[in-house]
């Protein structure tokens, strides 16, 4: 029904009757919208909407949300309706409306805004309500009002409604003083004027004062402050009658970028609504001549053209986008807008006859008729609950492309105009992190393809097929996912849902995207594997793996605000071992199993077989991202450990949970237990106490090789060593700081003596260890920084003859350091300790070996060596035997032979026994790139051993 236009001319004075007529028009439209909003709810949910004004007007203990006796209450100009009273009495029979008399007006307004009462409202829509209070409330009472709002939200959830209550004062909003931060529904500083634009064109007045904005004609918006002051100063309006949220002449350019980011953020969970709103922001930014929808809405009310259908917020939104996109000649974008609007309403026009008779169905049918859509399009959209992965993937690609297109355009406009965004840095970082977590592609990350596009992607029957090129199929080896695959022959004409390099990747992708449900039937189709270690899986294996993954990984939920405010860190690691691989496949095929009393799965049986062939690591981080990394080389386990340490080093205080699953097969339980123990041990050693990484060298043996894990700063790494000799050479290397050797629990099970030596290391202490072993004697030396070197040598004489040469050598080193200290060196002289290692019943213990200084005297020749750095960087030695010099300059390659000849000549009866260096001098520039004030003890020990081996080789001894 068309009303006559209302003209307000402030230059000729203001008629209070005209102001009342304007208010009445808004109130009439408001009541129609409220009725529509109420009709969109179920009978049970309507109680929430009916009670909201009353529970804020009264602070009644029997009503929902009651918090404290002094909680602010009393809604200006509100009189409880019959609906509100009946709703209250349904909940509390003792309630009487007379309890609301003389209620103080501490609340100034209550407004429902957004999609309720519009075409865009659906059963999944939430209710956003502004709760406005007086400016002079004490902070403690405002906090009580917030708590009441929180309790009411929980109460509404029991009725299946998402109720978001935003508490603030109109003055704070008008001056931008809200302290709210970005949360799931609160846009924080991301947008102010755009939010006000949406409020003015969608708000439904539930109680309290009316918006003062109603009384200022759209063409006078630029004089808003002047005219509102005129109305107030001249008492054309009462102070308790209207509430001022501020003017809205236009949207500042500074707000477009932050608002665009906010809509992208919302688009993660509500793509259709966000797509429409983001395109409106782009329209506002690019087409500044046509004004805002709120102004268009107000003009229609003043002109008498605003019907409840034509002024429907979503109809107006669509009309503006349609006009703009047609002028831009963008039919593809317009088609997506129409689909977004249709899906946002949630009305299936092809499935329910009563839908067409409802007001939403009637409006939507009219639009669909204008669009010229055939029934096929409607049937496709109405079958949203039946959409499959392929449809959702294609539609998601279009939606994400459109969202990012609009955002990039707004971002470019902001950069080209050198505009600083109004969004706060904290909010910008928060939104950016969630966008990164949702949309950013990166290696190994599992892509989520259904962010609110389809209700469910669950499949009834899924088939996982392992393809092998040798079977005659083109393409690389890998896994394919099919729907209802009856036979392998069907793969020639049926397109797979997805391809992946591993079965784990397919299962995790299915789980993250909701394809797997508890009733999904699983099938495995496999061709004969080509690899020697490949194994045929069973459906039981597959179900076991799905069950394991499902324990930790449902459909990923959005990250919390607290999580996004902190740097990302891993929360859960799942290690899936040997999926589709059997390290003993050659034996399994013949029905054989290798048995051994060596139970270490990393060095099984006498052949030291490594039973961990592959590891696939699924990581869930604090931003709810899921990623997969595969380790399939011979060093799979060590590579996995290195990466786990790298992730832990970024935040040592947060300890992720780690679980292990091994495919069913030979020794699967032992493998699971061994990998779990190893990971726990490594993480505990490097990050004990929630700090780290601690400086240490973790010694691990896998098959016949040694691995040493360690950190260089905050970067973990490892080195592989093929033999025991290589290991000793590596452990003897100098250390910048004290770095002990920590053996894995299984690494030295067969060598308890060596394990005891590693465990006995102490900072600032030089220790010599010895252990008789038949005709040989084993020695180890650990120095002040944890460097360690060990060797064995023939034992022909007694204990004193074996120990004294090494003790004298170490004492000579200590004496020289003592002299340098007396000369002003700062480093203290390390203590020297000698221990015997005694092994009994597989256990080692240490026993101190006392050696008095006078006992270190030993008859025989003195053999000294002095290192000389050559011009080419190599190190040569001049040897002195009983003060006779054998320089490399003089003897060259015959040097060792000459010294051996001299030793033989000096022996009285031609005995042939090993020779030992009693002293060694090394240059302080062993490393050409640095000068070492003090060389470490193990550096001297290592060079001493190499020289002794060369000399004794010349003597015919080893």
Automatic annotation (TrEMBL):
Q: Domain Adenylate cyclase class-I N-terminal spans what residues?
A: 19-214
- Reported EC number(s) for this entry are 4.6.1.1
Coiled-coil parts of chain = none
Could you state a single Gene Ontology molecular function term?
A: adenylate cyclase activity
Record key words, sorted: Lyase
Q: Does the record bear Transmembrane helix in its keywords?
A: no
Q: Does the keyword Lyase apply?
A: yes
* A Pfam family annotated for this UniProt entry: Adenylate_cycl
Q: Entry's PANTHER family? A: ADENYLATE CYCLASE
- What name does the UniProt record give this protein? Class I adenylate cyclase
User: What species is given as this protein's source?
Assistant: Marinobacter lacisalsi
């Amino acid at each position: 029904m068309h009303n006559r236009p209302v003209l307000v001319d402030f230059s000729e004075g203001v008629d209070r009757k005209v102001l009342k007529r304007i208010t009445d028009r808004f109130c009439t439209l408001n009541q129609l919208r409220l009725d529509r909003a109420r009709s969109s709810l179920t009978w049970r949910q309507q109680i929430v909407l009916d009670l909201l004004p009353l529970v804020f007007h009264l602070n009644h203990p029997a009503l929902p949300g009651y918090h404290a006796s002094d909680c602010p209450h009393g809604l200006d100009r509100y009189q409880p309706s019959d609906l509100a009273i009946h709703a209250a009495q349904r909940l509390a029979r003792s309630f009487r409306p007379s309890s609301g008399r003389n209620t103080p007006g501490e609340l100034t307004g209550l407004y429902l805004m957004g999609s309720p009462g519009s075409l865009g409202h659906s059963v999944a829509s939430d209710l956003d309500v502004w709760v406005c209070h007086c400016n002079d409330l004490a902070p403690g009472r405002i906090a009580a009002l917030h708590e009441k709002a929180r309790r009411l939200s929980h109460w509404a959830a029991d009725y299946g409604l998402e109720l978001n209550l935003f508490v603030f004062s109109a003055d704070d909003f008008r001056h931008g003083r809200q302290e709210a931060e970005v949360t799931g529904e609160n846009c924080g500083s991301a947008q102010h004027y755009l939010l006000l634009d949406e409020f003015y064109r969608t708000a439904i007045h539930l109680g309290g004062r009316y918006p003062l904005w109603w009384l200022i004609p759209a063409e006078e918006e630029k004089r808003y402050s002047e005219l509102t002051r005129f109305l107030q100063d001249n008492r054309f309006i009462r102070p308790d009658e209207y509430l001022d949220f501020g003017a809205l002449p236009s949207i500042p350019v500074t707000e477009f970028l932050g608002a665009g980011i906010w809509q992208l953020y919302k688009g993660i969970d509500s793509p259709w609504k966000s797509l429409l709103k983001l395109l409106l922001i782009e329209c506002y930014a690019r087409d500044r001549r046509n004004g805002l929808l709120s102004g268009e809405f107000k003009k229609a009310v003043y002109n008498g053209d605003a019907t409840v259908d034509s002024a429907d917020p979503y109809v107006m939104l669509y009309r503006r986008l349609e006009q703009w996109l047609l002028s831009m000649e963008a039919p593809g974008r317009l088609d997506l807008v129409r689909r977004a609007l249709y899906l946002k309403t949630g009305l299936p026009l092809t499935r329910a006859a009563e839908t067409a008779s409802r007001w939403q169905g009637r409006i939507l049918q009219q639009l669909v008729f204008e669009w010229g859509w055939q029934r096929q399009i409607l049937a496709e959209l109405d079958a949203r609950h039946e959409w499959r992965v392929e449809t959702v993937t294609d539609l998601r690609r279009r939606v994400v492309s459109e969202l990012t297109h609009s955002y990039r355009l707004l971002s470019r406009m902001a950069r080209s105009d050198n505009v600083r965004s109004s969004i706060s840095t904290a909010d910008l970082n928060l939104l950016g992190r969630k966008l990164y977590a949702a949309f950013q592609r990166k290696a190994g990350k599992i892509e989520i393809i259904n962010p609110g596009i389809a209700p469910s992607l669950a499949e009834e029957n899924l088939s996982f097929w392992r393809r092998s090129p040798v079977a005659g199929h083109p393409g690389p080896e890998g896994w394919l996912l099919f729907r209802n695959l009856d036979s392998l022959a069907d793969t020639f004409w049926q397109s797979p849902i997805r391809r992946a390099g591993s079965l784990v990747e397919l299962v995790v992708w299915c789980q993250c995207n909701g394809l797997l449900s508890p009733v999904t039937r699983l099938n495995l189709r496999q061709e004969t594997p080509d690899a020697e270690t490949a194994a045929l899986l069973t459906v039981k294996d597959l179900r076991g793996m799905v069950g394991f993954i499902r324990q930790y990984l449902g459909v990923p939920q959005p990250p919390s605000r607290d999580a996004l405010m902190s740097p990302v860190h891993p929360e859960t690691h799942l290690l899936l071992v040997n999926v589709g691989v059997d390290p003993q496949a050659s034996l399994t095929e013949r029905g054989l199993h290798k048995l051994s009393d060596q139970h270490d799965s990393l060095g099984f049986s006498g052949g030291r077989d490594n039973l961990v062939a592959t590891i696939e690591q699924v990581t869930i981080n604090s931003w709810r991202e899921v990623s997969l990394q595969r380790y399939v080389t011979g060093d799979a386990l060590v590579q996995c450990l290195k990466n786990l340490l790298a992730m832990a080093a970024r935040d040592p205080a947060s300890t992720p949970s780690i679980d292990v699953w091994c495919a069913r097969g030979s020794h699967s339980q032992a493998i699971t237990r061994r990998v779990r123990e190893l990971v726990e041990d490594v993480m505990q050693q490097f990050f004990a106490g929630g700090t780290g990484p601690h400086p240490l060298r973790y010694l691990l043996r896998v098959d016949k090789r040694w691995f040493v894990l360690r950190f260089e700063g905050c970067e973990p790494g490892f080195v592989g060593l093929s033999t025991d000799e290589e290991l000793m050479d590596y452990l003897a290397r100098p250390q910048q700081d004290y770095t002990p050797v920590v053996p894995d629990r299984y690494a030295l099970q067969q060598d308890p003596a060596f394990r005891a030596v590693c465990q006995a290391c102490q900072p600032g202490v030089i220790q010599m260890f010895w252990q008789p072993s038949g005709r040989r004697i084993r020695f180890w030396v650990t120095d002040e920084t944890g460097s360690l070197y060990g060797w064995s040598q023939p034992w022909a004489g007694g204990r004193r003859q074996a120990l004294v040469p090494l003790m004298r050598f170490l004492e000579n080193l200590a004496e020289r350091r003592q002299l340098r200290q007396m000369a002003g060196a700062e480093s203290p002289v390390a203590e020297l300790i000698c221990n015997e290692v005694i092994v009994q019943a597989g256990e080692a213990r240490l026993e101190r070996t006392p050696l008095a200084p006078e006992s270190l005297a030993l008859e025989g020749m003195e053999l000294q060596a002095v290192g000389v750095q050559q011009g080419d960087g190599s190190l040569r030695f001049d040897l002195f035997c009983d003060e006779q010099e054998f320089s490399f300059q003089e003897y060259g390659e015959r040097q060792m032979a000459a010294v051996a000849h001299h030793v033989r000549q000096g022996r009285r009866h031609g005995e042939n026994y090993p020779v030992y260096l009693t002293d060694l001098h090394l240059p302080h520039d062993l490393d050409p790139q640095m000068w070492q004030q003090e060389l470490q003890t193990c550096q001297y020990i290592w060079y001493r051993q190499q020289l002794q081996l060369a000399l004794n080789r010349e003597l015919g001894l080893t």
